[in-house]
Amino acid sequence: MATNFDEVKELVKSLPAKKIAIVCANDVEVLAAIREAKDQGLADAILTGDEKEIRGLAEEKKIDITDFEVINEPDMVKAATLCCALVRENKAQVIMKGLIDTSKFMRAVLNKETGLNKGGLISHVAAFEAPNYSKLLLVTDAAINVAPTLDDKVKIINNSVSFAKALGIETPLVACVAAVEKVNAKAMPATVDAALLAKMSDRNQITGCIVDGPFGLDNAICEESARIKKIVSPVAGKADIILCNDIESGNYLYKTLATLVKAKAGACVLGASAPIVLTSRADSHEAKFLSIVVATLSA
């Protein structure tokens, strides 16, 4: 089981090489990240977009792209559609957003005819290597599903469990977090969903993992906190996956871990026919690189 990103990279190196189709690759951080991934033997890439801009930027920033295939397609939307076709034809196994609006990128990816939409729910999962946690912590969903229903949360769990298993976690422990550890049906609907998901897990309606909740974040990841509050559960204090109630809580947690805690992070979107690397322009070089790593493993 991979407990940190160095071990994740070793897992990736042990698998057949994967290729990433990058949409609008005229982005210096994206080019630097895929260069690092290539140099470490983790991934290859096909660069699409305005070839003149891509090569000019690479030359200006002294990033060697001579061993990458470059396909000239200056139109952003057409470049995104082209990358989807490369994935569908198995010429690439991952798709990555470069310098293109997220809305245009996702519209192309989720197109039912020309994209990578396979009819399921897509969701964002982030892996964090935090200084005071003994293993990687997965957080979902911080970027895609705004206010997931109970059924949506089952699908989000399933997507994150598939990734956890790729990390070598045989039975992932999923903590459904809320503001309190007790069900409060009147004031806190999140606690009701958490309890229902736990019972669904008990009855094998959710398989391949152990789901429990509601938990406060502290007793989901700290055994001492769980002990003090007398919470008895195989998940308490040992969570592999944190299921957030909505995009606000997920996004706050993601950014808190990345900025205040300075945890290393890599994320991707799962549930389409191939992993999607959907990094923000504000993400660090390291985050873009590690997102390539985790998406490649997911593929």
Largest sheet: 6 strands, mixed
Unreliable parts: none
How far apart lie the N and C ends? 17 Å
CATH architectural designation of the largest domain: 3-Layer(aba) Sandwich
CATH topology of the largest domain: Rossmann fold
Average pLDDT, rounded to a whole number, is 96
| Tally of separate helices | 11
Instruction: Name the shape in a single word.
Output: elongated
Strand order of the largest sheet: 8-7-9-6-5-10
Question: Which percent bin holds the helix content?
Answer: 40-55%
Could you spell the SSE succession in H and E letters?
Answer: HEHEHEHEHEEHEHEHHEHEEH
- Structural class, from helix and strand content? alpha/beta
Short account of what is shown:
The protein is α/β, with parallel strands linked by helices and 299 residues long. The chain is 41% helix and 18% strand.
Give an overview of the whole structure.
The structure is a single chain. The longest helix is centred in the middle third of the chain and has 17 residues, at 150-166. The strands form 2 sheets. A 6-stranded mixed β-sheet has the order 8-7-9-6-5-10, sandwiched between helices. The chain has a 5-stranded parallel β-sheet with strand order 3-2-1-4-11, with helices on both faces. The mean pLDDT is 96. The protein contains 11 helices and 11 strands. Strand 7, helix 7 (189-202) and strand 8 form a beta-alpha-beta unit. It is elongated, with a radius of gyration of 19 Å. Helix 1 (5-13) packs across helix 11 and helix 4 runs parallel beside helix 5 (102-109). It has 2 domains: 5-118 and 272-298, Rossmann fold (3-Layer(aba) Sandwich); 125-260, Isopropylmalate Dehydrogenase, CATH 3.40.718.10. By secondary structure, the protein is of the alpha/beta class.
